[in-house]
Amino acid sequence: MHPFLDQIGFLxxxxxxxxxxxxxRFPRVQKGFETxxxxxxxxxxxxxxDALKDEMRAGWARIGIPxxxxxxVFEHHAACQNLARFLKQSDxxxxxxxxxxxxxxxxxxxxxxxxxxxxxxxxxxxxxxxLITEDKAxxxxxxxxxxxxxxxxxxxxxxxxxxxxxxxxxQAQLYETQYPxxxxxxxxxxxxxEKKIHTATLCGVSLRFV
Length: 210
What we know:
This protein has 210 residues and is mainly α. It has helices at 13-25, 27-37, 44-51, 58-63, 73-86, 91-97, 104-107, 118-132, 136-151, 155-178, 183-196. Helix 5 (73-86) packs across helix 10.
């Protein structure tokens, strides 16, 4: 049904069945995989980074932030990298912050309100990062940074997740000043982040800035 999948060498038969099911549920995912499968592997990471400039952070759009003011994923990456530098994190951490949502160039941004399980989302994004970095001779480092972030087991991986959440609440606070009528809806981002941030650098620190 999807002959282009046969051209992606790392996919197993089970992967192809899984992707076929995802394509039916999320047509944008099929478009993303089909688009990147047609790109020369050596060019895919650069194309992905550029595509993130057109990929909106779906959570902001969902609560009613005007579309022309919704933060895109590229801007989110840049802000996370700046936070990592400000918090005097390692060069690896800065690099990790710059690729942690790269798969959204292929599958787009899912939110907890989408009809997809955590296991399905993780599998889909793992296949997407394999596709983006299929030229492992050049891009093993990007793949490794993304996997370490996704696994969230190392100190760097945990801190990178917390930086991601801290950037989100900083953006939420900015939107509160711009769109005060959305304050109640923005509260969900504060609640989520305050529960999830766990590293010693950030634990016990109020997330609201005055």
